[in-house]
């Protein structure tokens, strides 16, 4: 299930974000977390099963929700966690259009949410 970011989860968020290729630098990582904490149009969510095992971060601009970050703990990959996060995000923002950024486009295309919806 998706849950919203809280300051208490900052270290977990930084750990998961560090798996993103563009978030390897510590200063960049701290700057990204600060954006999620301070800017209203930046929203960060965790995927929680027993533990927090993934995260997905978006920016909201009107009717557009752009996926900035998506990361899953390596020991939980290839189990559908990322796709489940995308489906849940689509439900949260059902009245908006989800789009990827250049760093998330490959995963976004792999999920093919429209096809997934057609099968359900």
TrEMBL record:
Annotated N-acetyltransferase domain residues: 3-120
Organism of this sequence: Heyndrickxia acidicola
Keyword tags: Acyltransferase, Transferase
InterPro entries named in the record: Acyl_CoA_acyltransferase, GNAT_dom
A Pfam family the protein falls into: Acetyltransf_1
Keyword Transferase assigned: yes
PANTHER family the UniProt entry points to: PEPTIDYL-LYSINE N-ACETYLTRANSFERASE YJAB
Stored SUPFAM superfamilies: Acyl-CoA N-acyltransferases (Nat)
Name the record gives this protein: GNAT family N-acetyltransferase
Organism taxonomic ancestry: Bacteria, Bacillati, Bacillota, Bacilli, Bacillales
């Amino acid at each position: 299930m998706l849950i919203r970011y809280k300051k208490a989860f900052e270290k977990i968020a930084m750990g998961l974000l560090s798996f993103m290729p563009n978030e390897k630098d510590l200063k960049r990582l701290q700057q990204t977390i600060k954006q999620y904490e301070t800017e209203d149009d930046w929203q960060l969510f965790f995927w929680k099963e027993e533990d927090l095992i993934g995260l997905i971060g978006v920016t909201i601009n009107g009717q557009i929700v752009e996926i900035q970050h998506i990361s899953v703990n390596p020991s939980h990959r290839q189990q559908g966690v990322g796709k489940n996060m995308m489906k849940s995000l689509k439900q949260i923002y059902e009245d908006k259009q989800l789009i990827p950024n250049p760093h998330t486009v490959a995963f976004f295309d792999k999920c093919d949410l429209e096809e997934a919806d057609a099968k359900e």
